[in-house]
């Protein structure tokens, strides 16, 4: 439910600002607890992770015992609840963790897949989004079991690679490894769910600027530059898509990232569709070289902006991120977003979504 | 339709028109070649709606007619046939191709669905030799923009001004300008898509045969031998390139083109490894030092030069130098510099019909 919908139903509803910094602090503490059980911990999002406990049985007991120990420690040390799924592969472990919430251990054994997973609605399977659900329903497929019992060929013909994945997943086949190795950052990005619908290029451009500033700063902080600019938008109807373009010269400045992001947005979005979420990401990264190819066009503007951004970096380092921002962001409430932006890493929920996560 | 012709003639004609067939299209018909038999001629046409090529060959036509065949399939089959007489016959949309003991039948498409090329009144004509046109394209086309940020820059400016024909290409970081005198009192300025010129340059022969050029507000027509090439022009105003080319310099270097090219190519080996392409010039008195550093090693190159003016330290993307040194047709060249953040102008020592300008890298 969106904030707007909630307000309609309940006009006196009180809204509380989220505390991302606090969330991050707790997230790190939870992950530390997980890492004390096994070195193989793959962090999937702020509150989800996989732990491979193969070989840890002698130290901590069976999978179920370890799961209970993890829940106990999280509750005792941090006073929060957690649900844990125990299974033979990552996919089923995630499904198991969703079976019972908020504070429980659930188990799915290989032979239990038909009994436990198959009766669930198709959309509970990872990879089945809203659009996919509709398409599956049209084919008479309503449960995960229906997918599993549809011939692989049929799904492949209809959905291609995706069909193959779905068939394997629904049959409980997932051979991916829990990889603790921090992925070498493929991209740096930020996204934000806006407090109000974004309805004009002007507003969207401002939100993008706030995002680009954060992305640019993070690129510079990490000594990286990239040559692929990617935007992600989600409409009010929760339809989201990603568009990207390669640019000729590597960049690490908000100014250039923003230039390209706005172009991509204008080419792919009409103002009459309200937006809920905007994201910007830079990929094609390489270590920053510290030199720039000069151009016949807008060279002075570019140099000026590089100086401005470098100067802002120094001010922000000394006085905090919010101590300075662009005048263009002062007019609207966008500046209040900057705070959130700096913490909210772009992590697409759906691992099949181009650009993030792996399964 | 029913005709016989020599395999080699047909193969060459297919190779020519095939350059205009589109590979990625939603109109299936555009993946085809229109074949038309009229009297003693067979006319082949292909187009992707931006570029259209039409050529004809001599043939023995028994029955006039037309058909559209899939360009790739048809072309490959003809290519693989022995050098002999080919017979092509169309019966109810089936195209029968016979040569010696081979027979091939493919389904054709309705020729009425094939878009006709824009008709152009062949009035204002400019004439230049195939070889010259080929060279003008070759010496400029590498500098067109590869991305669509400014669509106009994906083309080459064709400009006739005061008896000079100028070809100009620029991508924001460098500029190539090639000039030749031409007999014409009329001035004209049009921007021709890079793809068109790239395909034309592959069809042109290094010969003195004449190419006729005609313009309409939206199209350009090249006519040579049996072939006509029609292309859409790019919309919009080209960048005022004269403003970009500096007419003064602080120092000028005279250097052997081949020595410079060899040195830069060696230096760029390392620059390429580091994905940066960065090379540094240090010019002083009678030598030019070229260096390149990357994580895996260093290069040091020294070249003898003649220097007018003070020395300079400046850095470039090596690709931009290699590109021009590979095509410039002069043994000795001038490099003109002003400051380490202003363009370097490359000129031929023996002629002023070519100017290349490249912007440095800010360190």
Automatic annotation (TrEMBL), chain A:
It holds the Pfam family IMS_C. Residues 1-129 form the UmuC domain. Transmembrane segments: none annotated. Keywords: Cytoplasm, DNA damage, DNA repair, DNA replication, DNA-binding, DNA-directed DNA polymerase, Magnesium, Metal-binding, Mutator protein, Nucleotidyltransferase, Transferase. The keyword DNA repair applies. It is found in: Cytoplasm. This is DNA-directed DNA polymerase. It comes from Caloramator quimbayensis.
From TrEMBL, chain B:
GO terms for molecular function: 3'-5' exonuclease activity; DNA binding; DNA-directed DNA polymerase activity. Residues 1-118 form the DNA polymerase III beta sliding clamp N-terminal domain. It is found in: Cytoplasm. Gene3D superfamilies: 3.70.10.10, DNA Polymerase III, subunit A, domain 2. Pfam families: DNA_pol3_beta, DNA_pol3_beta_2, DNA_pol3_beta_3. GO terms for cellular component: cytoplasm; DNA polymerase III complex. InterPro entries: DNA_clamp_sf (IPR046938), DNA_polIII_beta (IPR001001), DNA_polIII_beta_C (IPR022635), DNA_polIII_beta_cen (IPR022637), DNA_polIII_beta_N (IPR022634). One of its GO terms (biological process) is DNA strand elongation involved in DNA replication. Residues 127-238 form the DNA polymerase III beta sliding clamp central domain. NCBIfam families: dnan. Forms a ring-shaped head-to-tail homodimer around DNA. Belongs to the beta sliding clamp family. This is Beta sliding clamp.
């Amino acid at each position: 439910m969106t904030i707007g919908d909630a307000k309609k139903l309940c006009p006196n509803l009180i809204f509380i600002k989220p505390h991302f910094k606090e969330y991050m602090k707790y997230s790190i503490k939870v992950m530390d607890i997980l890492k004390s059980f096994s070195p193989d911990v793959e962090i999937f999002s702020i509150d989800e992770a996989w732990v491979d406990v193969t070989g840890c049985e002698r130290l901590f007991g069976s999978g179920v015992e370890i799961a209970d120990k993890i829940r106990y420690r999280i509750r005792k040390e941090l006073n929060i609840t957690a649900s844990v799924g125990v299974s033979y592969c990552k996919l089923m472990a995630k499904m198991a963790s969703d079976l019972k919430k908020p504070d429980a251990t659930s188990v799915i054994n290989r032979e239990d897949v038909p009994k436990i997973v198959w009766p669930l609605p198709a959309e509970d399977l990872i990879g089945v989004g809203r659009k996919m659900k509709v398409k599956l329903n049209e084919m008479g497929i309503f449960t995960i079991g229906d997918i599993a019992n549809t011939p692989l060929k049929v799904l492949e013909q209809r959905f291609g690679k995706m069909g193959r994945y779905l068939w394997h997943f629904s049959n409980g086949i997932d051979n991916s490894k829990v990889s603790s190795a921090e992925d070498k950052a493929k991209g740096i990005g930020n996204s934000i769910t806006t407090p109000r619908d974004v309805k004009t290029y002007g507003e969207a451009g401002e939100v993008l600027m706030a995002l680009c500033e954060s992305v640019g700063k993070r690129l510079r902080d990490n000594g990286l530059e990239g040559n692929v600019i990617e935007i992600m938008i989600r409409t009010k109807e929760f339809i989201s898509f990603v568009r990207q373009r390669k640019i000729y010269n590597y960049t690490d400045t908000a100014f250039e990232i923003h230039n390209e992001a706005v172009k991509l947005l204008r080419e792919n979005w009409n103002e009459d569709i309200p937006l809920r979420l905007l994201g910007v990401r830079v990929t094609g990264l390489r270590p920053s070289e510290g030199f720039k190819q000069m151009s016949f066009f807008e060279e002075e503007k570019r140099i000026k902006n590089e100086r401005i951004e470098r100067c802002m970096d120094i001010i922000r380092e000394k006085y905090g991120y919010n101590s300075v921002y662009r005048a263009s962001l002062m007019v609207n409430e966008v500046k209040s977003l900057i705070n959130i932006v700096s913490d909210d890493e772009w992590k697409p929920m759906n691992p099949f979504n181009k650009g993030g996560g792996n399964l | 339709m029913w005709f016989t012709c020599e395999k080699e003639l047909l193969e060459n004609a297919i190779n020519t028109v095939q350059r205009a067939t589109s590979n990625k299209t939603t109109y299936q018909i555009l993946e085809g070649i229109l074949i038309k038999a009229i009297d003693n001629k067979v006319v082949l046409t292909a187009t992707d709606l931006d570029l259209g090529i039409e050529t004809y060959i001599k043939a023995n036509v028994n029955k006039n007619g037309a058909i559209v065949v899939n360009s790739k399939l048809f072309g490959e089959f003809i290519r693989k046939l022995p050098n002999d007489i080919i017979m092509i016959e169309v019966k109810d949309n089936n195209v029968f191709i016979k040569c010696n003991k081979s027979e091939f039948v493919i389904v054709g498409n309705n020729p009425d669905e094939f878009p006709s090329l824009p008709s152009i009144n062949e009035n204002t004509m400019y004439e230049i030799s195939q070889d010259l046109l080929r060279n003008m394209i070759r010496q400029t086309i590498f500098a067109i923009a590869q991305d669509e940020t400014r669509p106009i820059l994906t083309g080459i400016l064709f400009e006739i001004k005061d008896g000079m024909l100028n070809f100009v290409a620029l991508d924001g970081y460098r500029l190539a300008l090639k000039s030749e005198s031409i007999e014409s009192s009329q001035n004209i300025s049009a921007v021709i898509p890079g793809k068109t010129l790239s395909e034309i340059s592959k069809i042109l022969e290094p010969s003195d045969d004449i190419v006729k050029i005609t313009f309409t507000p939206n199209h350009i027509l090249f006519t040579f031998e049996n072939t006509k090439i029609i292309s859409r022009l790019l919309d919009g105003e080209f960048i005022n390139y004269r403003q970009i080319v500096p007419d003064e310099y602080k120092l000028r270097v005279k250097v052997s083109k081949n020595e410079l090219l060899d040195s830069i190519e060696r230096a760029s080996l390392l620059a390429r490894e580091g994905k940066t392409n960065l090379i540094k010039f240090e010019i002083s008195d009678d030598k030019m030092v070229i260096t390149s550093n990357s994580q895996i090693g260093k290069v040091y190159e020294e070249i003898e030069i003649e220097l007018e003016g003070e020395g300079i330290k400046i850095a470039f993307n090596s690709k931009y130098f290699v590109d021009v040194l590979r095509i410039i047709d002069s043994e000795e060249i001038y490099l003109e510099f002003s400051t380490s953040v202003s363009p370097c102008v490359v000129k031929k020592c023996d002629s002023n019909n070519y100017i290349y300008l490249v912007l440095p890298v800010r360190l």
